[in-house]
Design a protein that fits this description.
heterotrimer, A alpha+beta, B alpha+beta, C mainly alpha, A: 3-stranded antiparallel sheet, 18 strands, about 25% strand, C: mainly alpha, about 70% helix
């Protein structure tokens, strides 16, 4: 190669490279992709992912491990699927007796009972016998609905009020009393939200301010990715490899979703899902296939999504108004969206 | 008028064409497509190519679990197994995506790196 | 190209750049051809600049085409623009490399005198598409599926390279025989 060529390389090339890189960096196209660290584990019967941003790997690992440990601990307290958890032991005790509660469980039950009252019992935490009747209690399913006499009997037996009673003693500990054999604690409609809240608290304690905790699709975000919001897709209830809506979340926001498309069985063309309506003794038929609630705090958002799913659009949205700061996106069984004005998200799916 | 191309030009023409053809042959012959990795309790028990439709059974903790590949996508097919409820999350196709039947101890993941942060397909989380 | 008696290099660059931008806009207006299948005829003028006035002039024409073309189409700083920029950079760098194969930087290559317009054009065209695909992979698409389509892109560019090279050759022939460049050489 000749002299002139070398000369050109010396001046032109570096200038060109610097200009290109400069423009690319300035427009954020070369932003490093390695700053979001994600860990996924099987927990609470689902896949739980925790992502952190802007934290060095060692510190992120430590924080994430502690957060997972906390969620496992909560599962050990709140799950009704395993015989040794606190909830199961309460369910095994004879009814109409006061049973002492751990602080965590007491706190959660208190929050839940507020929701039970405001939703006129649509949200209920004592449906374990009903859930079991329909086959959703264990991992082994029945694939046909129980005879209608079975749930009618349950409906008759379930107390209209006071199925679960809570009291606080002078020493600030709480106790619980279950009214009858038709009542059994099942926290499936709120526990994941609680676990996510506790995981976020642990992450914050460890100095992580930008993260997502995603428990099988029920998630909460804190902070952002250096100013860029977390990009959350809402799964379409029927075309499950499609995203129905995109939400850009940052700050402190939980987004909890209840739907009829994750735990269900089909029998003679009919879909039987796991969200029970205590008013009918059957899976809720409210015309909705998915309810996503956004708000500060996972437990309430999770409980609200369950309650609204059971109540249906009209009464569900009325309930939502009692919780200012909470917003929702409902998807009907026909695939139509109903979105409250404050819900952060853009609907994508074609009708 | 002079000839439009000289010998060096023609050499470049032919040489580059040969390289393009060579590249095409190489890419054509390589095993194409993405793979699905199936894990049982964190151990890989099966790897499936997503390029041809197929169905495979693996032993889960509660009985056999069927993994189905169709049209470049993969899913846990559970309707045939009335004894099981897993997380029914449907089809997955993009690198990094996963579905699981937790009580079965089975996890299916599409191999490869996730779409980078800047790609329009990238989601930090899927609410469901 | 009018018959002026003492034209300057800058004027020729301006003409070529204008022709390049014009061709670029015309191609953009063509229906049916996707963003990847433009004939890229605008590069012809970059080539003419290269053979007539050297590497820097060619870089200038290319840069003007990308910038002014994007401004005219309203795509400045859009992903398309960056792809264009990356591609043009690659092409210009390839031109720089091609200089090494030539002996005279300002004269049209004679047979046996190193690479002519067709050869240089092919190299620049291939470099252009490779850089564009790389840029698309890095910043837009992100998964390697795009590389499977690379042979088709390369083939298209190879053809375009030949066409551009021939066109450039024709233009250069006219230039040397016209009065426009009297006093240039």
């Amino acid at each position: 190669m000749n002299e002139r060529w070398r000369g050109r390389w010396k001046t032109g090339l570096p200038i060109l490279v610097v200009v290109i890189l400069g423009v690319a960096l300035l427009t954020g196209r070369l932003s490093p992709r390695t700053q979001v660290l994600t860990t996924t584990r099987m927990l609470m019967g689902t896949l739980v992912s925790i992502s952190t941003w802007g934290v060095p790997p060692a510190r992120s690992d430590r924080a994430v491990n502690r957060a997972f440990a906390e969620m496992a601990r909560i599962e050990d307290v709140m799950s009704s699927h395993r015989p040794t958890t606190e909830v199961s032991r309460i369910n095994q005790v004879s009814r109409e007796t006061w049973i002492p509660l751990s602080d965590a469980l007491g706190q959660l039950l208190q929050q839940g009972l507020v929701l039970t009252e405001r939703s006129n019992q649509a949200f209920a935490m004592g449906l374990e016998p009903l859930t079991g009747l329909w086959g959703f209690s264990s991992d082994r399913a029945v694939s046909a609905p129980p005879p209608s006499s079975a749930w009618q009997a349950w409906l008759q037996a379930y107390p209209a009020t006071g199925a679960i009673e809570l009291r606080e003693l002078p020493d600030h500990t709480r106790q619980i009393r279950l009214k009858s054999a038709s009542v059994g604690l099942d926290l499936g409609g709120i526990a994941k939200g609680y676990a996510v809240d506790q995981a976020i608290a642990v992450l914050r304690q460890e100095g992580v301010d930008n993260a997502i905790v995603d428990a099988g699709g029920d998630l909460r975000v804190i902070g952002s990715k250096g100013g860029e919001p977390w990009r959350i897709g809402l799964q379409h209830p029927r075309q499950t490899d499609q995203v129905a809506a995109v939400s850009l979340l940052q700050g402190d926001m939980a987004m909890m979703t209840s739907g009829d498309y994750e735990r269900f069985f089909l029998h003679e063309g009919q879909r039987y899902h796991h969200i029970m309506d205590p008013g009918t003794g059957t899976p809720a038929q409210s015309g909705l296939s998915s309810v996503s609630v956004q708000g500060v705090g996972g437990s309430i958002a999770h409980g609200l999504s369950t309650a609204i799913f059971v109540l249906g659009a009209e009464r569900g949205l009325a309930l939502l108004k009692q919780f200012p700061g909470s917003e929702a996106l409902l998807i009907t069984t026909e695939g139509q969206p109903i979105q409250t004005p404050g819900f952060v998200g853009t609907w994508l799916a074609k009708p | 008028m002079r000839r439009a191309t000289n010998r060096a030009d023609r050499q470049v023409m032919v040489g580059s064409l040969l390289m393009i053809v060579g590249l095409a042959i190489y890419l054509f012959l390589r095993p194409a497509g993405q793979q699905a990795v199936v894990q049982r309790d964190d151990q890989t028990v099966l790897t499936l190519s997503l390029s041809h439709d197929q169905q495979q059974e693996v032993a889960g903790r509660l009985g056999p679990v069927v993994i189905q590949v169709q049209g470049g996508r993969v899913r846990l097919l559970e309707y045939a197994s009335p004894r099981l409820i897993g997380t029914r999350s449907g089809w997955i196709a993009s690198a990094g995506a996963m579905v699981a039947c937790v009580p079965c101890g089975i996890l299916v993941r599409v191999a490869g790196e996730e779409a980078p942060q800047s790609s329009p397909d990238h989601f930090d989380g899927i609410a469901r | 190209m009018s018959l002026l008696s003492q034209p300057r290099t800058e004027l020729l660059i301006a003409y070529l750049a204008a022709a390049a931008v014009g061709t670029h806009l015309l191609e953009a207006a063509l229906p049916g051809l996707g963003p990847w299948f433009k004939p890229g005829l605008a590069n012809t003028f970059t080539l003419v600049a290269f053979f007539q006035m050297g590497w820097r002039a060619a870089a200038g024409v290319a840069l003007i085409r990308v910038l002014v073309g994007a401004m005219a189409l309203g795509t400045l700083f859009s992903p398309t623009f960056f792809l264009s920029l990356f591609g043009a950079t690659g092409a210009v760098l390839a031109l720089g490399l091609a200089c090494g194969w030539r002996t005279e930087k300002t004269a049209v290559a004679l047979p046996g005198d190193g690479l002519g317009p067709v050869g240089v054009s092919i190299l620049a065209s291939l470099a252009h598409i490779v850089c564009q695909v790389l840029a698309a992979w890095l910043f837009i698409i992100g998964h390697s599926g795009i590389f499977l389509a690379l042979p088709w892109f390369l083939l298209g560019s190879w053809l375009t390279g030949i066409v551009n090279g021939l066109l450039a050759f024709l233009i250069l022939e006219r230039l040397t025989h016209s009065h426009f460049l009297a006093g240039q050489r």
